[in-house]
Amino acid sequence: MDKVSAESPIGVFDSGVGGLTVAREIMRNLPAEHIVYFGDTARLPYGSKSKETILMFSRQIIRFLQTQDVKAIVIACNTASAFALDTISQEVALPVIGVVKPGARVAARATHNGRIGVIGTEGTVGSHIYRDFIRKIDPQITVIERACPLFVPLVEERWIHDPITRQVAERYLDEMKSQGVDALVLGCTHYPLLRSMIGEVMGEGVTLVNPAYEAAQELKAMLYTNGLANPGTDEKEFPYRFFVSDLAENFKQFANSILPYDVEMTQKIDIEEY
User: Fold this and answer.
1) 129 three-state secondary structure
2) Catalytic residue positions, numbered
3) Boundaries of CATH 3.40.50.1860 in the chain?
4) Distance from the Cα of residue 73 to its chain's centroid
């Protein structure tokens, strides 16, 4: 394994395509950085699996990313951030960033009336990770949580502006509106792709918090603080590499529909080997 340096890539992983919203924010906000992305498309969704299973999957993926000489790891999955981040951070010598804590911190700052909504998968909402972290920041804040499991398949069908998706959003978010939240955490990496629709349903008075963007900002600060920011002097022909555990072609098509970069190749690997 080569020595990790500022020119080394960032490792980003998710249960599938949702984490591409995090990769997209890193591309936009840290254009000099290289990325190795892994989507665990064979074993998704993570939102309905146990903490033990998520931890096992995360360890395998991180072992793979370490073979790619990454200098930092971003867990671009709310469920894995909830269940695995603290343990993984203690086990790995590299800096590890999740999406939950940056999102929770911004939500706590954004609320004016002390009422924050959190939407996510069953796993993320059931873990109460956002609620617990927000309350550590300010115990006076009320957190209203709602699992929105249908959002993920609707996004993956690319029904992002479909009337059916709008109906589902209105039904899911009705409780948030009636509870008077003024900040809403998009607590699943698929959800930023529905941001405009969710914003329309919630109304102008509600601040939408995108943990994907906030994680990219935290990554940026961490890289500069630790002298790991890529100076941008090594122009690589393929600055972004994509790996999956299954359905490489489907992944590539979805990636090309949302990324500001044309994904020419996605490589399938056997993650069980790691």
Assistant:
1) helix
2) 77, 188
3) 10-98+213-273, 100-211
4) 12
